[in-house]
Amino acid sequence: MQGRVTILYFASLREQLGRECEDVSLTDGQVPVQTLVSDLRSRDKALDGVFAAMPRIRVAINQELASFQDTVKAGDEVAFFPPMTGG
Amino acid sequence: MIRVQVQQDEFDMGAEMAALSRISGAVGGMSVFMGQVRGNQGDGLESLTLEHYPGMTEKMLMGLAEEAFSRFHLLGCTVIHRVGIMYVGDPIVFVGTAASHRAAALQATAFLIDRLKTGAPFWKLERFTDGRSHWVDARETDDAAAAAWDDPSKD
Hints:
heterodimer; A: alpha+beta; B: Aldehyde Oxidoreductase, domain 3; 4-stranded mixed beta sheet; 4 helices; 33% helix
């Protein structure tokens, strides 16, 4: 069964990728974030370069901070961004 | 009472402080932190553009405010963070806390600003007078300041 997830990019990550969001289909019903990232990197050379060059990328699932071991499922909103610098 | 706001417009510090002071007859003091765009560093900084993750930002700020409220037994707590473009000297963030006694208010304000710098989805883009721009890097000292609040027994 295939499902789609919405992926958002912020700040320097968004700027370097040249896009702020995309919809992708999951290869399995649910996958760890790191598998999703591997899939994204293997089918997009530019994204692979950006992720390789940027250490400490953070992830949020459905607007909650998450880890790369957490599971993504169909319908989720997954966001990638550099460390936060508010205040 | 907790008030969390993310907005483009400037905030009125006097009005926010007055509202906090009147929040309860039990208020004995309040503490305020206001952060603004720092200039005169010799680097020609002209402006900061604050980007955020709408929805998640409000959720994370509310979570931090609720944590401060119960941890420091606050009577009132206001967090306002601006987004968009701001110039040298412009206010960026307001944190105000009201409590029965000064220690709680002072600690709660320090907790909130330390935590929100690295714990809410904001990012700063610096623009300089010569046309350069640069995303601000996270600082280890900020991570350390946020982590220092991990142990509530030290309050």
